[in-house]
Design goal:
234 residues; mainly alpha; 9 helices; 2 domains; Four Helix Bundle (Hemerythrin (Met), subunit A); Arc Repressor Mutant, subunit A; two-stranded antiparallel ribbon; two-stranded antiparallel sheet; single chain
Length: 234
């Protein structure tokens, strides 16, 4: 009976975590918004304990942070933080992709191709919320990039790269023009990275991924200038 209770608790916490995460990345909970336990318990019909555990996991993902006298809040946007995050991602994620290409098996290739197939067929925007990528596309997008990195045998590097990419998802969701820039073709960028990876052309794949990350980060991030504790860089 104890084991069943524990299992049910884990399942409940995971459900709250997934719903909170989707609401943050879907723009339904906004950067800087306070996450009060009574409201969370009511919104997700869960206990304070389950909500607290879910917030702890989201804090580890970089999507939630804590502030004195405020408690948990959705991580605010900051140009300075974005610049540092982008620098770290460009170096670490491109390294992990190189190792993935050098070490990945045929099974890795198949998984990456399957993830790209799903991404290509996922709708980018939902008609009811044209300002943000829809949950389905965001999930497929994360899965595609995770699949590209999965061939690397160094799990610490993989975990670090995925953690940085997770933090970047919040910025991606609040970009003013992400995915709609007239001079950019996201589908082509993803396809070219995949093709270089499958061809085992590590140099080209690294260069394409670096450009892909840097281009996305160069977009104007809505709300970042309003974050008082993280002033925008030059």
């Amino acid at each position: 009976m104890v084991a069943m209770t524990g299992s049910a608790s884990v399942t409940r916490t995971d459900g709250v975590y997934q719903r909170l995460r989707a609401d943050i990345l879907g723009g339904r909970l906004t950067p800087g918004e306070r996450l009060k336990f009574p409201l969370l318990s009511d919104r997700y019909r869960t206990s304070v304990g389950a909500a607290r555990e879910a917030l702890t996991r989201l804090a580890a993902d970089g999507l939630v942070t804590t502030r004195p006298h405020q408690g948990y809040i959705v991580t605010p946007l900051s140009y300075r933080d974005l610049a540092e995050l982008t620098q770290a991602r460009v170096e670490i994620e491109s390294l992990v992709l190189r190792l993935s290409i050098l070490e990945g098996s045929v099974h890795w290739e198949a998984q990456a191709m399957a993830a790209h197939h799903l991404l290509e067929r996922s709708p980018f925007q939902h008609p009811d919320d044209p300002d943000h990528p829809c949950d389905e596309w965001s999930t497929a997008h994360s899965a595609f990039h995770a699949a590209l990195l999965a061939g690397c045998g160094n799990q610490r590097l993989v975990d670090t790269a995925r953690s940085l990419r997770q933090e970047a998802e919040l910025y991606l969701q609040w970009s003013v023009s992400f995915g709609t820039e007239p001079d950019r073709d996201l589908g082509t960028e993803h396809r070219q990275i995949l093709e270089a990876a499958i061809a085992r052309d590590a140099d080209r794949a690294q260069a394409l991924l670096r450009d892909h990350i840097a281009h996305t980060a160069s977009l104007l991030i809505r709300g970042a200038a309003d974050e008082p504790n993280h002033p925008a860089g030059p």
